[in-house]
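re: ur question from earlier - yeah i can do the single chain one, its not a big deal. heres the input i used so u can compare w yours
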Amino acid sequence: MNNFWLQFTTWTLAFSFVFGLVFGFIILASFPFWLLWNWLIPPIFGLPNISILQAFGLWLMIVLVRSTRFDYSKTFGDTKQIIEDKKLDDVEWNDILFSMRKNYRA
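and the output i got, formated as tokens:
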């Protein structure tokens, strides 16, 4: 029976440690965003203040959206090449848009 309590205590401490690390990361990642939002956005745009969990949700959404692999240098290089290959008057917007769509992989 003593072995059970030792294992239970060990698992509880391990779970608490991992949960504490995750919670600490959420707070550290969200705190600057939360402060800036509540300082700037309500007076400027009239939007409501947000909680720390809402700040984490917005921060996470921004990270996920910004993590796309859009290569700006390749896209603008291809666009520049299209313009240089043709006269400026002969450039088709479809060619430029196709080049941008080709390089954008969400």
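The two ends are 54 Å apart (CA to CA). not sure if urs matches, ping me
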